[in-house]
Every structure is written in C-alpha cells, then in structure tokens.
Amino acid sequence: MVDLKLLYHDLVRFEMELWGAVDARLRAECDLQLTWFEVMRLLGRRGGCRVLDIAEEFGITVGGPARWSTGSRPPSTAGVAPIRTTGGLRSSS
To answer: What is this structure's pTM?
Structure first.
C-alpha cells in the first residue's frame, strides 16, 4: 500500500526544488523572477487583466497584484521593466 503522507511530502519537496531550479536559471539568464514570468505569461495570453483576474488565476489575494498595478515591486525586480498591457491593469471595482 502506498504511504500517502510520504507521497505528499515527496511531491511538495519536488515542486519546491523544481520551482527553485527554474527560478534560479531564469534569474541567471534573464534577470527575471519566475513569479514575474508567470504573471507576464498570463498578461500575454489575455492581452490585459484586471487585478481580480490575476488573483483568481494564481489563487492569491488581490493585495499583490494591486501593488504591482501601481508600480510597487519586490526589490529583486528593480531592473525589470514595468509590465504594460493594452488597457493596463485595472482593479475589479
């Protein structure tokens, strides 16, 4: 019988290691965090989003995307150009 707790633990560990490896390579080659890359992919697919759309897509609160839409960014993205989309980011209200 499969030990589901061990399987879950292994899957979570693998996901964390994979995310870390992809993030490190993307930072080294493009000076871009994986988190920002994922948001940029979403914006590229949709051509523009509301803050609520981004939050729903990634299963997060609207706080982060709302700060991004006003130009506030994590310190490690200081050299990355601002995200611009047709129509820009807009709040859901």
So the answer is: 0.61
